[in-house]
Predict the structure.
Amino acid sequence: MQTIQHILYGAANVIVVLLVAPFFEGVLRKVTARIQSRKGPPLWQPYYDLLKLLGKEDIESGSSPAMQRFAAYLSLAAVLTVATLVPMGAPAPMGAGGDAVLLIYLLTLCGVSTLLAALAAGSVYSVVGMSREMMAMLSLEPILAIAIVVGAMHTGSLRLDAVLSGSAYAGGTFPLAGLMLLGVTLLALQAFIGRVPFDISEAETEIMEGPLVEYSGPKLALFKYSQMAKLVVYGALLTGIFFPWGNGLPYPLGLAILLVKVFILVLLVTVVAATHARYRIDQALRYYVSLLGASGAALVLAAFGY
């Protein structure tokens, strides 16, 4: 009976992400337009965009169509799998089927799918976008991995229900490492989800969507859906590690509080995106390396019990 309950909660997480992610994307677009003194599209425009792309003909234009299809499916599947491991108003539904190490692998797989998509497209622009995405991954993925590892060190467990329950502050003394990682992850949030000023790998005005330049129709819809879903999944992941308050409430109320916290993070992302110009790749890499250095210092402090 408990196994069935976990499966239902996991399915509920996937449904919530699929339903809510386009709405948050609509909020991001609308608020961005308001900040820039524009009217902006309606909140429901992302839903219309996805439906339009899904209804188009699936044109095979890359050098490896089979790999393109696989990368598109993998992109959304990886994000939704992470959703089943993250608490969203209830304990991590499929936490018994994985641990913090699996979570780190799946988060990395979300980026790997973009690299595969760019490589399969075979375009000059997609290769440039792939190289930028790879450099960002090498700098950014360790930051989130360190946040998860520090949580595991503080709780003495790799179980997801322990790591994703305010583990950043679970050390025996003043949680200096957790506070440092909180600052680092908030500063890196924009880059984790590939938003301005860190959308360097796609840079529409420069390399025309980069890794996705050769994609259209249903495959492009899957990639766009994956990017939207990251807003919710990464927001839920960060709230689990750093803002766990309210997670123990009954399911519908706990889910509502989680969505409010994610909504606040979306507004933060929106304000930064609307008020900053895109960084150059060298500027972004220097920024990533500084954040990585700070997260490494936090890891050392956590090893000494801080």
Residues 2-35 form the longest helix (34 residues). The chain has one domain: 2-303. The chain has a mean pLDDT of 88.
